[in-house]
Amino acid sequence: MTQEHKFGMVALIGPPNAGKSTLMNAFLGQKLAIVTPKPQTTRNRISGILSRDDAQIVFLDTPGIHRLRGRMNRFLLDSAWSALGSCDVVVALFDAALYSGKPHLFEKEVEPMIEPLRGCHLPVIVALNKVDRVKDKAQLLPLMQRISETFPEFELLPLSAVTGEGRDKLLDKLLGILPEGPAMFPEDQISTVPMRFLASEIIREKLFMSLREELPYSTAVEIELFDETGATIHIAAAIYASRKNHKGMIIGKGGQNLKLIGQQAREELEEMLERKVMLELWVKVKEDWTEHPGFLRSIGLGE
To answer: Which of 19, 67, 223, 229 could form a disulfide with 196 if both were Cys (CB 3.0 to 4.6 A apart)?
Structure first.
């Protein structure tokens, strides 16, 4: 008897910094979505394709669910919730370490997700992530009880995307739910997003890590040139700042910060593309770009 083959799409959804990108990267066994300690790093839905002999799963990493105001934040929320429309299963991811130490944040971050998840009419698995960071395991019990009472109709799984604890169990649960179907993508394809988008994300990650506090959230990256015709890939990218005084902070004294961003991004791009890369970066000012719908769509938001 031929073993059935599964195919389906899984939405990873949850508050900022719940570990969605880390979990998807762990399932794929390689870095696809950028990861930083800063919340709201993910701005676009990013797909990751896991191909096995018995299944092909397309994971959708989504922007964090939050209550922040502003046009860009509305775009991010719309992008996150609209991902559910094309999926077969939803994994709602929550930060065990955060709510164990600060229970009051549970109401702020988790409760706004209750009705949308109940109303999505899809199988939902609630994953309590970062259990490895809860030193006193006794703190997990009341948190798990509270989540079970909040989502009584959904299965709850504790896990750690970093250490792997519970990850295989989650994957087995997903395989049990996904429908039968043939693979839709070549087995060596890891994403549906274009390479130039991944390049912009890598640059943005290095930008995020080099800037302090709120400044990263007022920056964006747009690839202006991605030329693969020669032996060396030529990439030119614009970094947009929403304030004139931010431009100098991004560039740094004597251009040192921008140089470091470029060096780190180039090295990672060369590793990913397995070719030499010439990377050029410019910093431009676009006042209040986070409130411009046309510009937000031009960098892939609101789609």
So the answer is: 223
